[in-house]
Amino acid sequence: MTLGPGFRRGTFGFWAWGIATLALALPFTAHAQQADTAAMAQQSAAMHRLDWMHGKWRGEARMQMPGVGEKVVTHTERVGTLLDGTITLIEGKSFDVDGKVPFNAFAVVSYDARTQSFSMQSYTGGRSGTFPMTVLDKGYAWEVPAGPNAKVQYKAIFDGATWTETGDFVAEGQPPRPFFKMVLKRIGDSDWPMAGSVTRD
Fold first, then answer.
1. Which residues, other chains included, contact 11 with Cβ-Cβ below 8 Å and sequence gap of 6+?
2. C-alpha–C-alpha distance, residues 161 and 60, integer Å
3. Where in the chain are the domains?
4. Where in the sequence is the signal peptide annotated (predicted)?
5. How far apart are CA 181 and CA 125, in angstroms?
6. pLDDT tens digits, residue range 101-155?
7. Which H or E element spans position 129?
8. Domain 37-188 class?
9. How far is residue 177's CA from residue 199's CA, in Å, rounded to a whole number?
10. What is the dihedral of CA 49, 55, 60, 63, to 10 degrees?
């Protein structure tokens, strides 16, 4: 079996072929490992628009449950950053009066420097998805597809003291139907998710 000039079956042939392949790959590998500092600077600057969210929050959430009616829970959020402040991490958790957790969600907010757009990658209840996100002045909005010609729209506003977020079900040709509202107060700082990270030693 001939692999090319000078490369034939045998230990030396495969060894030489491997070295040649490695040599060709090294420039690409090195390039892939280099940080795009310009993109990181834009991402970090964009994330600063969400600085108001950082910390721990607690309050009340009200949800309209199909066939059940309104459910009221104690709701919490904790928010922090990773990767030199280029992404924002959010965990939402609700508690029933008996302490059980009926709702727990995790999201990563990122900024694409090429398209100059935000997105939210969300995980909850065995489901996940990545959704476009609009960052407002002291707030944000995002939406989730909810079937043919329908969607769920979320909008959050921070008035300097209170984080209020609402959710509406919107079907084509129908008025929005509110189904979710949370009202939270900031209860303190948080070192999450950096706390407990592995160190060199």
1. none
2. 15
3. 37-188
4. 1-32
5. 19
6. 999 999 999 999 999 999 999 999 999 999 999 999 999 999 999 989 999 999 9
7. strand 127-136
8. mainly beta
9. 49
10. 50
